Amino acid sequence: MHLSIRSKLTIAFFLVLLPFLFLEFLNIRERTASGRQSVIANLTASAQTGAATMDAFIAEIIRKEQLAAQVLSSERSLSGDDMNTALAQIRAPGAGATVRVLPVPIVIPKLETLSRSLQPFALYLVYVDTQGKVLAADPPSMVGLDLAAEPEVAAVLQQRQVWADSGLKADVAPGEARSPGFGVCLGVRVPAPGQAICAGVDALTLRDILPVLAPSDQIVILDNTGKVLYSSKSSDLSSAQRDWSHLPFAVEAAGNRPTSADFVSPIDGKQYIGAQTGISSLGWQLGVYREKSSALAAVHARTQREVLVFAIFVVAALALAQGLGSLLSQPILELTAHARRLSQGDLKRRISITTGDETQTLAETFNSMAEGLDRTIGDLISAQQEIARQSEQLQQLLVRTNAVQEDERKRIAFDIHDGVIQLVIAAGYELQAAARQVGSGNPAEARRKLDKARQLMDHTVSEMRRIVFDLHPTSLDSRGLVPSLEKYTASWQETAGISCVFSVEGKPIDPPSETKVGVYRIVQEALTNIRKHAGATSVSLLARFDPGHLTLSIEDNGAGFSLEEVRAASGHLGLMSMSERARTMGGQLDIQSRPGQGTRLVLDLPLTAPGAE
């Protein structure tokens, strides 16, 4: 596949942008995660504050029940009405009553109301005998009710727990259709052993002590079965809306440690993020949640802005690449068209390119060549045979030059196909695998895949640099043939991982530039073929300089091949290219090989020093 200069330049720009795209992706993901963690941290702090408030609330309920037990035990001759009155005074003391007020921490000032009065939090305060029957109550209408089946009463009377809670109750006050709530029961030894003081708490009143949140936030309290006992969003919940036991975080938070959550709420079907922590005194969970769209709105808006800006930058860069490609390719297209006209015999027309670079120099060379050809044709018009002979020679020269150039292009194409393209494809597969791992929630594996892709792209860059260097080794002009071959063989040995020994016999002669390039290219092609096809473990090169002559041998211990089969087959561009290059330099290339016995190439080349006649 042949690509235009504009396409190649666009691809090069895109490859340069790839690392920046990757880094920007990592930065955006890191900032998104940081914003999310900041929101969760704030919600976690709110959840811990709410849990501490609930612990203090339950402690105050129990203290009130202890106070009720003390009052009832202080006077054993109290009648039923007297006990009812005493419980009423404890639940809601009158203006003139003397009630000890429990000091309340400054961080939970709302509990001061509770320390003075159980109303409006407690719907009832009752004194229960050993059989679960209410002996005294506030309100008095509950006297005589049988509460033995209530879970908190049974836990204290039958299981002998010091105190117990009921968890969620659909109707906190027996016999009355009231709001959901829960009961707290305290076992007492006086005025009679095995009895209890119990209170019923209306869940709706918890809003008076829990923190006030933003409109998009909600507080949810789950009992030890995963049922919603309180929600700051709604009080009228169905049984399905109250059942959160199937959510994973409901199990995780049971260990009394803060956890975070990202889930769809059964209450309103919206997606929330938040945190929950255990209420240590009850074994319940308190969570603070915020609608995900609201919580991450600022983060998403910033991310979208950054993505838009970067996308504009990428589009601008690619547009610039397209523009530069057009600017660079237009003169070359003009030169191609002019060369085509020249090849058709149009020697009168001139090409005008004013780019001020090598392209302009080439255009001027084309014009000079056209002028020279025109003069030559005019001078030789009378000598038809000479003109025909020179035309034939020129045509042969052009055909051979084109053939050599095409062979060189094919070699470069094969290098890119076997090396660079395979590396880019492998990197693409690794990036696809990383994307799948990110979607599967496996960041560690995704990071490993991305590291592998980066390594492949680094290898691709190194391979491209090698190919570019192979196009024209500048060290031939600055250091000469032998030092350049020493450097190249050492570099090849390190890259290929194959032992390569280069030695010289005789006094080195630095031949003309064209000959140096030709010899260097033959060595390059031979070593490339050895690395790709021979399976060799060692290679030896010997350059023997005799007066006016160079013999270069290249020998490996690889698999070898059949010369007859190679010559009969087509497509062996490496051997063809080396043989043709040797002929153009006035030498010849001898190829010796057998299957299983390695390969030996011998270049026999006459030499003249630069500038010699």
Structure summary:
The chain is an alpha+beta fold and 613 residues long. It is built from 16 helices and 15 strands.
Describe the protein:
With 613 residues, this protein is an alpha+beta fold. It folds into 4 domains: 38-207, Beta-Lactamase (2-Layer Sandwich); 212-297, PAS domain (Beta-Lactamase, 2-Layer Sandwich); 394-471; 473-606, 2-Layer Sandwich (Heat Shock Protein 90). It is built from 16 helices and 15 strands. The strands form 3 sheets. A 5-stranded antiparallel β-sheet has the order 2-1-5-4-3, with helices on both faces. Strand 6 and strand 7 (228-231) form a beta hairpin. The longest helix is centred in the N-terminal third of the chain and has 70 residues, at 5-74.
- Return the CATH class of the largest domain: Alpha Beta
Can you summarize the main beta sheet?
5 strands, antiparallel
Overall average pLDDT: 78
Number of helices: 16
CATH topology of the largest domain: Beta-Lactamase
* Beta strands, count: 15
Q: Catalogue the unreliable spans.
A: 94-113
**Total domains, how many?**
4
Sheet with the most strands: spatial strand order: 2-1-5-4-3
Give the overall shape: elongated
Helical coverage, percent range: 40-55%
CATH architecture of the largest domain: 2-Layer Sandwich
What portion of residues belong to β-strands? 15-25%
**Ends distance:** 44 Å
Radius of gyration: 46 Å
Question: What's the CATH H-level homologous superfamily of the largest domain?
Answer: PAS domain
Supply the helix-strand structural class. Answer: alpha+beta
